[in-house]
Write a structure and sequence with these properties.
Blueprint: H1 3-19, H2 24-30, H3 36-64, H4 66-85, H5 91-119, H6 127-153, H7 160-176, H8 189-200, H9 203-212, H10 214-230, H11 237-254, H12 256-266, H13 269-291, H14 297-322, H15 328-340, H16 345-353, H17 358-375
Helix pairs in contact: 1-4, 1-5, 1-6, 1-7, 2-11, 3-4, 3-5, 3-15, 4-5, 4-7, 5-6, 5-15, 6-7, 6-11, 6-14, 9-14, 10-11, 10-13, 10-14, 11-14, 12-14, 13-14, 13-17, 14-15
Length: 385
Amino acid sequence: MSPWARVGAAVLAVGWGANQFSPLLIVYRDQEHLSPTIVTAIFGAYVVGLIPALLLGARFSDRFGRRRVMRPVLVLSALASVILLFGAGSTWVLALGRLVAGVASGAAFGPGSAWIKELSADAGPGAGARRAAISLSVGFGSGPLVAGVLAQWLPAPAVVPYLVHIAVTVVVGVLVWNVPETVTGAASSGGRRRELKHALASPEFLRRIVPSAPLVFGVATTSFAVLPTLLPAPVAPVASSGVIAGLTLGSGLLVQPVARALERRRSPLVLTCGLGLTVAGFLLAALSTELGRALLTLPAAVVLGAAYGMLLVGGLSRVEAVAEAADLAGVTAVFYCLAYLGFAAPYLFAAVDVVIPAPVAFVVAAGVSVVLVVVTAPFPARVAR
């Protein structure tokens, strides 16, 4: 197994742990009798741990190396599942488990993506970004899919999915423990700060990455956290919720060969295509909620998932375009911070639901995305760096 694939497996395992909670929202709501408001708050505790860990994890990995960060991160990811499997009867324990999962994810995604990129140096431009996006997408998709199936048809639905994730993380930890380190020397901290500020202040980052990044997980969480709530499946709702999540993130994975082909020809257009798919996905979501047909959430999930995949690959490739080697992990971490703002999408839809109907909210979201297509359009003959 190649070194980058072993690191990719580590990112996959952490992403699995981050997203396995989504189909269990129904379990905690219906079987553990937690209110929808409390369940949504527990779901969001993940982001509280994630944002600071994204920034600190990148800084620590630049200073101490990727491997010294990823090793304890895998332990934290498994620990989060241990906490969650004992937390079914306690709101605070569940929130703590989600918080720890957020810390593990935040500390893993920036350094992990940078490590994959550095181990993919001989694979051509953009290979590292694509491989990192694939690893993350497989983890995000397989976690809720497996958890949903296990929770629907096996005993102890609030325990068994976490046991599987712990086992996966242990196996991956053995694989990644001795992957070669890629950070062999470091620039001065002042030099790194100057390079990071230069990348973050670039027109490409401010005009294209900043506006589009929140939609990366905004479209994904809309698909697997909002649509199943608005239109629950009449049969096997827990498994169906997991299938929606798996379909969303699986579509994000399957679209990435298309993103790679487009990237080779016109790299800046990947983001634009992702935003176009976002418009189509929100309009399909509006149609499904207007007609009240749960079956129509399936094509909406596919299109929103494809938008997620395009936006993720496009965002990471733009990050590679503006970042120098020394500040890649830091710029990647900032990108993920912006992307994870999209986890607020369920709260936004819940907040506006008392004012405007869901179909109208989806149409408004599609209109905002159309504006972003125009605002972030690449300039002709413009080089990103």
